[in-house]
Amino acid sequence: MFQTGFAAGMWKTNLQSANAAAVSVPASKQSQRGGLAGLSLAMLLSSLGTSSASVALPVLTREFSTPANHAQWVVLAYLLAATALSVSAGRLGDVFGGRRLLMMGLALFTAASVLGGISASLGMLVGARVLQGAGAAMMMSLSAALVGENFPKEKTGRAMGVIGTMSAVGTALGPSLGGMLIAAAGWRAIFFVNAPLGLLAFGLIGFHLSSDHAQPRAQWSRSAMDFAGNFWLALTLAAYALAMTTGRGQFGMGHFVLLLAAAAGVVLFLRTEAAAHSPLVPPALFRSLPGLPGALTAGALVATVMMATLVVGPFYLSISLGLKAAAVGVVMTFGPGVAALAGVPAGRLVDRFGARWTVVTGLKGMTAGCMLLAILPGSAGIAGYVASIVLITASYALFQTANVTAVLKNVPAERRGLVSGMLNLARNFGLITGASVMGSVFTWAAAAAGAPATAGPDAIAQGLKATFAVASLLAIIALVVMSQQRHTEIGDKPGESRRTP
């Protein structure tokens, strides 16, 4: 899995001036580079946390003499914690200071990694993964938020591109790195390797990023935390994620109960927010950032589309195209690899042409790539599949970098953590939903009754076409949503000088 959600008026003149004073840009390019290296490493580690552990499941099944569905909790525990706590982590960063909380997240992630490496039982390992996921929630939510506080606006796109690149690198590198570490030193090595990297990121961020004490937080007292709202939101997200990620594509009574619990959690969360003195997600946030709902919606839809490439790809390559396991692994790295390579250029395009053009161009490219896979003739073979995936993932890098940059670029410092957490949540929501929904579409279209591995090449090819026909529709909806946004609602201010490509 990919690794990885999200004031009144227009922030009044006094808040705007306070926000301007809050942004403390490092004095030298060396400090900017060191700070960006620390933020990028934090994002890399959070991505590795999911993808590297997944390859260890067969080994853990044998090591602890446990069924595969029990070992699966090593991955699920991390995913659930990282998803359920993403918005709360962002809000805590706004209250206590983003740099301070990010360093706490890194310390927790590093300590939990060591705990995972010395685990003597599956239960202890799962507990360590919960703590690791909590640390990752802080790392993912606050890394992007701190870019806006430590880099000038004209360089924000490039910095976001670097962070997005490291996230993609972690996703692509995780399985291969995990496999090599397990082969060389055993499964514990995939946890121990995080310790020196986590310490390095901790040092870089502590030394190079500006301190939180320079940021005015008069609007956010520590007593203003909406603990009830945090609780109901975390419980709701955990129930939904659990319903969508267990059962290997089968839907039973347990899943129905979990979805009912998630729906009840939404109602309780909304009621709590309506009565809260300082709600976790203030309604005024959407009035002051009218482009935020569209950005969140498009982010979730695009993540759902991206998950389709991971759900369908291995079956199509191995069964329809007849590739061996090693060749499937090589071809599957093209997607994350292209996204990684495209991240920095995407950031430069955002800085040069503006967020609106880059967002729309990225969504058009994703739509075209999905349509190609939906009508792909069998004669296109590996070349046709790879070309389509390259188009989809390069366009995804454009969209993701521009979307995050556009939303966070003009958000006041005291809200950046919360909004960044919401963006991260939207992304995780899409990935989790995509794993279940797109997998179900594929299974249904392949007529394999929940077991795609038993279907023939033609059935798998039909499943691929149907899945990406649905993905094309989702990409078109995202394109319509973002195309309808006014120019200033997705990050570009009136009068900003932008070149037209």
Output the keywords:
21 helices, single chain, disordered C terminus, globular, Growth Hormone, Chain: A, disordered N terminus, mainly alpha, 501 residues
Notes on the protein architecture:
The protein is an all-alpha fold and 501 residues long. It folds into three domains: 25-211, MFS general substrate transporter like domains (Growth Hormone, Chain: A, Up-down Bundle), CATH 1.20.1250.20; 230-277; 287-493, Growth Hormone, Chain: A, CATH 1.20.1250.20. 76% of the residues lie in helices and 0% in strands. It contains 21 helices and no strands. The chain has helices at 13-22, 29-54, 57-63, 68-71, 73-84, 86-96, 98-117, 122-150, 156-185, 189-192, 194-208, 227-245, 253-275, 283-288, 292-320, 325-332, 334-353, 355-374, 381-409, 413-446, 457-483. It is globular, with a radius of gyration of 22 Å. The two termini are 35 Å apart.
